[in-house]
Amino acid sequence: MPPLLSHSSSPLSLLRFLLPIKSPLYPPSFLKSQFCPLSPPAHLCKPSLSRHVSTSSSPPSSGGSSSVSMESSSPEPTVSLDSVTLDLKNQTLGPDDASTAKLKLEDLNWDHSFVRALPGDPRADTIPRQVMHACYTKVLPSAEVENPELVAWSDSVADLFDLDLKEFERPDFPLLFSGASPLVGALPYAQCYGGHQFGMWAGQLGDGRAITLGEVVNSKSERWELQLKGAGRTPYSRFADGLAVLRSSIREFLCSEAMHSLGIPTTRALSLVTTGKNVTRDMFYDGNAKEEPGAIVCRVAPTFLRFGSYQIHASRGKEDLEIVRALADYAIRHHFPHIENMNKSEGLSFSTGDEDHSVVDLTSNKYAAWTVEIAERTASMIASWQGVGFTHGVMNTDNMSILGLTIDYGPFGFLDAFDPSFTPNTTDLPGRRYCFANQPDIGLWNIAQFTATLSTAKLIDNKEADYAMERYGNKFMDEYQAMMTRKLGLPKYNKQLISKLLNNMAVDKVDYTNFFRLLSNVKADPNIPEDELLVPLKAVLLDIGQERKEAWISWVQTYVHELAASGISDEQRKAQMDSVNPKYVLRNYLCQTAIDAAEQGDYSEVRRLLKLMERPYDEHPGMEKYARLPPAWAYRPGVCMLSCSS
Which of 428, 441, 460, 484 is geometrically suited to a Cys-Cys bond with 28, CB 3.0 to 4.6 A? Predict the structure, then answer.
């Protein structure tokens, strides 16, 4: 077995080990076996554990995940275009479920454990500066506001902390959630963190335009942090204005909720309000700045702690290493309490596979167990991304949640035509470091930086760091293989079949979402005439020549043979496949259509998209246009390729 990745490897040498590919597609080592006959490194595919026990648990979520269930279920009610339009016209914001405790904003149960437990900045000004020996700075929202409007809201997020849905009707709601009026009980602050950006250490970054209002504890004792993004300057704003525009805010609001409905761990979004003031932005960094409407999103998560929250303090030398420990203790106490309660009887000891037969005992070091869980949650999240064709675009370490949540929606994108080298970020175009195919390896690279931080603080040793990275590889491969098996409706994982499929899709630029959705219409009948095999897929196999047609017929024949051997009925398999292959994803051109209307004061398309994306696996008769391939205009600059100017 190759030696385990060392936490002490330099970023450059580790990246070269992970991505030894000279082709411009940069397929990751984990997925390389899906695009070529070579196998990934053995230590990333095969557990070397004497006993495999997963210590991970799902991040808090308000609902189940359709995308991971293979059990057939009763069809959910569908929503027609006319009914959605009528609903929007007649929409009222209440009443909500009588079983949920209903609270007014003034009655929310605030608890400021982060501020209480961790060292803060003695200063409260917003002058850009290095904030030393502190995890946060107390600041107040300062964005200029004039007649703010509520653009959109999420009922399900309000339910997370028992908020009465009628509170959205309050005339002062836009003022409260733009930061113009203070929320009773809130204690606003901006978090200090650092990070690696595009593989290079960037030093202090921090919340440059996000201001946390505090934590709300609900009736189930769950902790939810509320944060206003675009609320004004903080000491971490550097040369920026601390504001956000409506364009990027719509994208973040919609994608947060769309990802949740796809069953992918993510931060959530409670509300989106306009500020009534314009913000100057140079969208393409080409010197052509323009005025855009300002907006603020209220983001919600159990915590917004990131890898970079720990990195910044470890980078500042001996004096701040105790802050790394304090932050780890805080996270374990409030967000991983099961780790603190582990005991020796659980027997979480594992062989590292080294020549000396050494053992990692997770019960003897809670920080090691915590690191392993973070690694596994991260791997699971990224496997989920690959399943729906999601590309984050900016996988810097300051954008990696310790809870394994998708966080910081900037230049994200869902695959249209299948292209492993796709990146939605114009800044990333030269090297495509964060392209779709590279995401699994970048996740591991980021875990390596995180474990190096904890090792520097002497919370874990080298073997524990290496073991966490090994568990990342095992978890990713397990989840990726299981996910692809479900997407194809196969009885078991078939590496050769899936590898050939992805190769075919890449060659013919087949639409990722629509292909897998249509695949469930293929019948498990080996007697189907050859000239009819591709009929269920004709809508996605466009403009292919005879040679490519033969390649696809050959693949479908093999696929049908596998299905026929499974013994599952066509109807049952279709229901199972449709429950994991969404019909609707938040394509960039759909966002742009909603943005264009919203910038003219029409918010109906934002709300319509939100409602549609809440049930992405349903058919929604009358809404088929939202599943179509992007129109020609969608490929203009600024729609499907986006910079970070937001």
Answer: 441
